[in-house]
């Protein structure tokens, strides 16, 4: 059964955040809120949890996982960013955007797009998510909590606990965080490509 953590949305309890992060370091798969919707998250090298995310979401090997980062300095360790892209990404973060960029050698091979060698990265504007990745000290490997054959992500912690009680190890509830996933911008080509229209304004990339 998944552990259930009720976390204050504006002032996350440090002890609770520490407990969740300890469980992530020990191999846990967690459902947690972001500034767009709920996500599934685990530690970078956790192959078992990655396989569980793929199973829960029915994903294939072409799926772009996302590295949820604390700040731009951390993000730049895992993807290659030239000057033009730097300015565009910097201006849009923190926020409800995921950026697809060429990965550095810091990213485990199984997380890369098999052909492009890219990975998704984002810096969320959400107090609880920021507390998690800050305490973890590295990006949180994540994927939107969108179940197969459903049009919208799950948004309520109690419902996630009920439906995924035996598939995740922990659920963090800090109130409703919306149903719209991030806007996804692919910067791996010559021009930015809007892959998914979501919570982030796309006008600056059009």
TrEMBL record:
The main enzyme category here is transferase
Keyword Nucleotidyltransferase applies: yes
Question: One GO MF term, please?
Answer: L-threonylcarbamoyladenylate synthase
Coiled-coil residues:
none
Q: Which UniProt keywords apply?
A: Nucleotidyltransferase, Transferase
Which EC number(s) are documented for this chain? 2.7.7.87
YrdC-like domain sequence ranges: 14-200
Entries under PROSITE patterns matching the protein: YRDC
Phosphoprotein recorded as keyword? no
PANTHER family in alphabetical order: DHBP SYNTHASE RIBB-LIKE ALPHA/BETA DOMAIN-CONTAINING PROTEIN, THREONYLCARBAMOYL-AMP SYNTHASE
Official protein name in the record:
L-threonylcarbamoyladenylate synthase
